[in-house]
Design brief:
This protein has eleven helices and twelve strands. By secondary structure, it is of the alpha/beta class. The protein has a domain of 213 residues: TIM Barrel (Alpha-Beta Barrel). The strands form two sheets. An eight-stranded parallel beta barrel has the order 1-4-5-8-9-10-11-12, surrounded by seven helices. The chain has a two-stranded antiparallel sheet with strand order 6-7. The protein binds ligand PBG and zinc ion. Ligand PBG binds next to helix 6.
Length: 324
């Protein structure tokens, strides 16, 4: 008989044998939903504890993040329906909402590492991630718009642009555009490489008001019945020049995270614990089914154990508070 219980005798002994690196504040990327105007901090119904911020209240909130040691944020823009159009123009106009938010953050907190989401669905009248042609998203005509959006964010000072539209060739298109200007040459790319078409995005679409007005995203986001394709998507993004890679969602895709980490150890791997994962766990905890701290600690540790270096999580702030 091999005696394993010796490894579990006390908390101290268990700590000694734990071979998964604990998640630190610096490993988190905290997502924010940004709206125009001032003094706004509006709760999102489907995501308890998460708000939409105008730029001024966002700056106040980031002060709290800094106190907790979190230094990375990911920005999503949310605009009213009457500012949306077929081409998602508000996403890449020179004075777009996210560029203004980036400038404000960088001015006040130069050390905060700013990532911006690059996708059109929050800005198009039809809610799809690119330009429509014959009722489907057209790949190639969408690329220059995504590139322009990334370029505008980069000019404003974004450290990373993070294309999430799942258009083929988007990394190459962004890299070319960024490299064409001395000022944006050093802006890096975090690719949403293996992004599955997922029901777990439900609450986000409410938060960002970005649900497609017809159909779904299955012609561009990955089919969850595929696995090897995820590695091919990552490989293509690396060949196109991405700096960091991502798997999304996280908890139902730990196998993909694990394989990505094994296959590409030299590329920083990000996992996105998406809105539905957050809301599912938090709502269950609020109903008394779980202990909130424990369920999130276990879930986030599993994502780390699978091989994620960085984790995008709506729970990041609370996680750091829990561990204070
Ligand atoms: C935009 C985008 C989505 C998410 C991140 N970027 C939604 C989608 O693809 O429908 C989901 C994030 C989350 O659920 O937390 N393309
Ligand atoms: Zn999108």
């Amino acid at each position: 008989m091999k005696r394993f219980r010796q490894y579990r005798l006390t908390q101290e002994v268990r700590d000694k044998y734990a071979d998964v690196q604990p998640i630190e504040s610096h490993d988190f990327i905290y997502p924010y939903f940004v709206v125009d105007g001032s003094g706004r901090k509006e709760p999102i119904k489907t995501m308890p504890g998460i708000d939409r911020f105008s730029i001024d209240t966002l700056l106040d909130d980031i002060a709290e993040l800094i106190k907790l040691g979190i230094d990375k944020v990911l920005l999503f823009g949310v605009i009213p329906q009457n500012e949306k159009d077929e081409r998602g123009s508000a996403a890449y106009s020179p004075d777009n909402l996210i560029s203004r938010a980036v400038r404000a953050i960088k001015e006040k907190y130069p050390k905060i590492i700013v990532f911006t989401d690059i996708c059109l669905c929050e800005y198009t009248s039809h809610g799809h991630c690119g330009l429509l042609q014959n009722n489907d998203v057209d790949n190639d005509s969408t690329l220059p718009l995504l590139a322009e959006m990334a370029y505008q964010h980069a000019l404003a000072g974004a450290d990373f642009v993070a294309p999430s539209a799942m258009m083929d060739g988007q990394i190459e298109a962004l890299r070319r555009r960024l490299d064409s200007d001395e000022r944006t040459k050093s802006t890096r790319i975090l690719a949403y490489s293996a992004k599955y078409a997922s029901a777990y995005y439900g609450p986000f679409r409410d938060a960002a008001d970005s649900a497609p007005s017809f159909g779904d995203r299955k012609t561009y986001q990955m089919d969850y019945r595929t696995k090897n394709q995820a590695l091919e998507e990552i490989k293509a993004d690396i060949e196109e020049g991405t700096d960091w890679i991502m798997v999304k969602p996280a908890m139902a895709y730990l196998d993909i995270i694990y394989r990505a980490a094994q296959e590409y150890p030299e590329y920083p791997l990000v996992a996105y614990q998406v809105s539905g994962e957050y809301s599912m766990l938090l709502n269950a905890a609020l109903q008394g089914l779980f202990d909130r701290r424990r369920i999130f600690h276990e879930s986030l540790t599993a994502i780390r154990r699978a091989g994620a270096k960085y984790i995008i999580s709506y729970y990041a702030k609370q996680y750091c508070l829990d561990n204070k």
